[in-house]
Amino acid sequence: MAISGNDGGRSLLPGAAAVVLVTVFLIILLRVENQKAIIALLALGIGAVIAANRLGLLKPVAHSFSEREDALGLLAIVATFAVGAVFHEDHFVLLLVCTVVLYTVATLGLSIQFGYAGVLNFAGASFFGIGAYTAAVLSQHTAVPHLLVLLIGGLMAALIGSLLLLPVLRTRGHYAAVVTIAFALLFKTFLEVNDVLGGPQGLQVRGMTILGWSFNDNIEIGGVELSFYLNYFVMSMMIVVLAFVVVRRLERSWIGLNLDALRLDETAAGCFGLNIVRWKITAFLLGNSLIGVAGTLHGMVVGFVQPNNYTFADSLVLVSILLLGGIGNPWGVAVATVIVVIVPEKLQVIQEYRFFLYAALVMMVLLFRPEGLLPRPVRRYFPGWRP
Amino acid sequence: MTQNPAPREEMPLVLEARGLTRRFGGVLALDHLDFDVARGEIVGLIGPNGSGKTTFFNVITGIYWADAGHVSLDGAEITRATPQAIYHAGVSRTFQRSRLSLPLSIFDNIMIGNHKRLNQGLWFNLVRRQAFKAEFEESFANAQALVEVFDPPLARRMLEPVAGLPMIDRRRIEICRALISRPQLLLMDEPSAGMTHEETSQLMDDILEVRKRLDGLSIVIVEHEMGVIERITNRCVVLNFGRKIAAGTFAEIAADRMVQEAYLGLQ
């Protein structure tokens, strides 16, 4: 359609400004070490968002995201790469950024399951772990190319997840959630007693190598030494972009509509020909494979896997990201992952009270903003399209 | 108003139910019910609360299975078919308690009813976006044209959520959702519920208007408002305790003594 350059620029500007401001804020937050300065920064950030909301500055931002999503998506990718470039020698920060990016992929998977199909999965971390353990076993014992390992990790998560299909399809709502909780608890116990998989100590994971390019070696370009985590950062970014596109297209298609219809009213959806079993299975498997792929790469990034990394509590963190961000809104998921992963990592005072704070956060969200920080807007099949 | 004496003897039957029985525990919700609908006919289904009208709809659409008896649509047996199969065979319905998906847009709600005419393939939906866009634009135009028959201003708000709309608009959208797939048989469960007298009358005008354009559509309507039944039906069936106690034109059943006792409350 013919959006004049002028009008297009106007609707792009608020979104672009928001992306740039958030990026600058993040870079400063990641750079600062002094705890008091971090607390001051966080307070400033929260205050700025509340003030912007009061002044009505967030509406144009939301508008520009709904009209010009493709352009702003590109800008967000550039901004994330800018963060990577600023911290090109900083192992710790790059590892943190990789974790944020891969957690985003995992919660995008959860949001297909819960946000669209309404299947609440409390075993997200288990499927993440299945991917990581797949990486450990395959990289130690086989010569399977590592890109293929990523795919196999996703497939394994989907395959083992299909054990849950029957109980999940037979039960509804909370009962299906209880089934996934049981799975999460069993999974961790299974890993702990299983010596082949390293028991409680876990396993080493070899670093990624693609066509002879070893991801675990630092990079040297023209005398500048770059952290090896930059390799993983680029790889994670490719995966998150792909996952984002898949989730977006899924939502903006008849399949997304099917999933919404069966979540909101299964009986009515059935009366209009919807095959409920088929679409619940599709959503569950697709979500789990995204979580699995993210877990596989994360296993390679951190270099070891152990049962304690994939507990029920970690699954709850994933679910709390979803609730905080806005159920079914991928942008909300990305923002919430940044908050939930980075804040406790930077603010060491709250490290120990992490789970307590997550719980408090979830309760506050449910009480005061049940649709999350960025509520999901009404579906637009093609942004900017008008009849 | 005008009673259209139905040309039902010549027209083929769309729906044919024989000896339909459904029990809930000790209660006989449907008791050996015979029920026919001819092509192009509007049949009123009336009876006191709990007489089995909604159960009849639920059995026809496959939500409940019949304990005994047969249903066929266009001569094909659908007695034990799933709701999905019955929809694909050409039966659509509206619900007594409006069952729209409130957070979704008007367009989305109507498209839920269009399921069988939309390409549901993963590859088509995720990868072939140009082809998807063509199907989307065509569906949008169709849905908008259908809503336009009911209410032109509403047709300009297709991308707004249903949640903010008044009851009459919700009913209109529910009927559009049922009609978009061009069914042979439309089952309407108390379309006047929750609406004023004027709104109901307006909605009935719309339904008659739409029916003119959908050739051969048959309708079964459950309704408590006798004005509606008198005005739009060709024929009525009266239920009480799951049994058919009378059938005929509205004038005939209104004069029937048993009907007056059971339903109109006369001594």
UniProtKB/TrEMBL annotation, chain A:
GO CC terms in record: plasma membrane
Name of the featured protein: ABC transporter permease
Originating species: Bradyrhizobium retamae
Keywords, comma-separated and alphabetical: Cell membrane, Membrane, Transmembrane, Transmembrane helix
The keyword Cell membrane is annotated on this UniProt entry: yes
Localization in the cell: Cell membrane
Topology within the bilayer: Multi-pass membrane protein
InterPro entries: ABC_transp_permease, LivM-like
CDD domains: TM_PBP1_LivM_like
UniProt key word Membrane: yes
A Pfam family assignment: BPD_transp_2
TM region(s), chain numbering: 12-32, 38-58, 70-87, 93-112, 119-138, 144-166, 173-191, 228-247, 283-305, 317-343, 355-374
UniProt GO MF annotations: branched-chain amino acid transmembrane transporter activity
